[in-house]
Amino acid sequence: MQKPSRFETKVIHEGYNARDMLGSLTPPLFQTSTYVFDSAEQGEKRFKGEEEGYIYSRLGNPTVEILEEKIAALEKGERGLAFASGMAAVSAILLFLTKTQDHIICSAGLYGCTFGLLSMMKEKYGISVDFSNMRTEEEVRSLIKPETSVIYIETPINPTMQLIDLEKVVKVAKEAAIPVVVDNTFSTPYLQRPLEIGCDVVIHSATKYIGGHGDVIAGLLVGNKKLIEEVAMTTRKDIGGIISPFDAWLLLRGLKSLHVRMDRHCDNAEKLVEKLKNHPKIKHVYYPHEEQNPNFEIGKKQMARGGGMISFEMIGTKSDVQQFLNRLSLIKIAVSLGDAETLIEHPATMTHAVVPEKERQSMGITDQLVRLSVGLEAWEDIWEDLKQALEK
Ligand SMILES: *Cc1c(COP(=O)(O)O)cnc(C)c1O
């Protein structure tokens, strides 16, 4: 039989063969720190790279490698790499691709801690950053300098749900031979595959939709074999943000239902967008596949569906917004996303509090902006909770 190519089948079967593991249906958990050599000579050969085999779990672990193979297949990349957190993956790739005095072009809006990391890199290593909406090829081209070493993109952007046209960016980046790194956390490979468009590296906070059950913090990288193997043997090995085998095992368990969960997240989000849009207390709803969204065309082009994240701007003061959050009961106030439970947060005072006020305003993160991670509950129950909290 040919290797199955449909996403829904690959997400379950890819990267694992029960025959290799004594027939165990699910991947075994290799909860070990190190591996025993048959002889001193074998140890020498493994360290020299003359013989394949495991040495120490910071360098490689069978459970982790099943996960890495699966995510690589889903993102249509050659090689995957797992980390202790999304931020461990982000810092490993950014520190790998840059040196002092380099320059980074970055989407105008991104995860708060990634912003924090870029600020630290600027202060400590003189690496400058230009934030841009990358609306046109000219806009991207005009920002490129001889020392530009990365174009770093989030799309949809957290938390404003703005989109960046990856095809346009890739075209310019290829001319200048600059790698494009995309944080694909919000979309997952089920909805968006940046490597197919020509981007070079995909990042995930696997804490979110990949794990999907709010029980693990982890990160993933996918890209070409040469690049990812170099990251494995440098910034991952030596900085050491390594995933625990148990967390890799939890992600393998979560991943099996990714496609089913994502469709339900999207179904629920689409219903809620319609309701929120028509509520008088709501000024604006941001969702990739919403027709009035100025990025609608980009959304249709590069995302199969709109995803499970919605942000909206309320009418009122910061205190009104906080009181609205406090009145919710089914929906939990929490900063993660992509879980079965619907979660809500206030970016300006929570996830993006590290971003200075001026930048925050220019990114569109106002005091009135609320971010909703739509869960897997009945959408009617989610809406009833939102409605009572808006109207009380
Ligand atoms: C959560 C998140 C991260 C960071 O991931 P951790 O697993 O929390 O370290 C990075 N990017 C995006 C878009 C995120 O949502």
Strands, helices and their partners?
Elements: H1 7-13, H2 40-48, H3 62-75, E1 79-83, H4 86-97, E2 103-107, H5 112-125, E3 128-132, H6 137-143, E4 148-154, H7 166-176, E5 180-183, H8 188-191, H9 194-197, E6 201-205, E7 219-223, H10 225-239, H11 245-255, H12 258-277, E8 282-286, H13 296-302, E9 309-314, H14 318-327, E10 332-333, E11 343-345, H15 357-362, E12 369-373, H16 379-391
Parallel strand pairs: 2-3, 2-4, 4-5, 5-6, 10-11
Antiparallel strand pairs: 1-7, 6-7, 8-9, 9-12, 11-12
The chain binds pyridoxal-5'-phosphate.
GO molecular function: homocysteine desulfhydrase activity; methionine gamma-lyase activity; pyridoxal phosphate binding
Protein name: L-methionine gamma-lyase
Pfam families: Cys_Met_Meta_PP
Descriptive key words:
Aspartate Aminotransferase, domain 2; EC 4.4.1.2; Cys/Met-Metab_PyrdxlP-dep_enz; binds pyridoxal-5'-phosphate; globular; 16 helices; pyridoxal phosphate binding; alpha/beta; Cys_met_metab_PP; 392 residues; 42% helix; five-stranded mixed β-sheet
